[in-house]
Design goal:
single chain, 113 residues, mainly beta, 6-stranded antiparallel beta sheet
């Protein structure tokens, strides 16, 4: 006997994240940004099986939201007056959405004009 669960949702995210920067050495900058997030999960939960003797609950909608924490860390190096390299890591807790988390790693080249 096998029962499959199907979880589907759309996430809505609004974040408030101030950023704090420090100059470590000439050309090097360290930044951190604590986040307060409002996460809303709008979706549907359903179950299915191939066994006709098992009774399952009907599909139901999911409408949940809550406040969670997150953080961003970034280090950047100025290559000159008009360009820089940066490496950033961001963590988001998406708790109302089936206990999911987000980890984002970004490397970028910035050109100021």
């Amino acid at each position: 006997m096998v029962v499959w669960g199907h979880y589907e949702d759309d996430l809505h995210l609004i974040s408030f994240a101030p950023e704090f920067k420090w100059t470590l050495a000439p050309g090097w900058t360290w930044a951190v940004g604590p986040q307060v997030n409002w996460v809303a999960s709008r979706g549907r939960i359903s179950y299915s099986t191939t066994d006709p003797t098992i009774q399952l609950v009907a599909a139901r909608g999911r409408n949940d939201d809550g406040f969670t924490w997150g953080a961003t860390k970034r280090v950047s190096y100025d290559l000159g007056e008009r360009s820089a390299l940066s490496l950033e890591y961001q963590f988001l807790d998406l708790e109302p959405s089936f206990n999911r988390e987000s980890h984002i790693l970004t490397a970028s080249f910035q050109w100021k004009f």
